[in-house]
Amino acid sequence: AFKIQLNSTGDVLDVPADKSIVEVLAEVGIEIPVSCEQGICGTCLTPVLQGTPDHKDLVLTEEEHEDNDQMTLCCSRALTDLLVLDL
Ligand code: FES
Fold it and tell me: Which of 13, 41, 62, 85 is deepest in the core (most CB within 10 A)?
């Protein structure tokens, strides 16, 4: 499990092992546009301001993964305890 923080409000949300970031956000009324939900299409790409994503997508290049400044919220997770998202 890890936490995400919304940059706009400062709200911190828990992401349990059995839920995606998209699912956790939906529970608080934030609808992230998704299509494939498998890391293939890139619809759910979101800027990351702090923390290191655990990239599970096939959309971004290896270089883009290493930049750690965006992630797919449908399937990627976190290597750090907290991710600050530009939401
Ligand atoms: Fe397709 Fe996330 S919805 S990559």
Answer: 85
Interface confidence: ipTM more than 0.85 = yes
Which residues are paired to 70 by β-bridges? 47
Any ligand 1 atom below 6 A from CB of 34: yes
**Ligand 1: does its nearest atom lie under 6 Å from the Cβ of 72?**
yes
Alpha helices for 12-86 (secondary structure H): 21-27, 62-67
pLDDT in tens, 25-39: 999 999 999 999 999
Mean pLDDT value of segment 41-65: 98
Give the tokens for residue 37: 């939900």
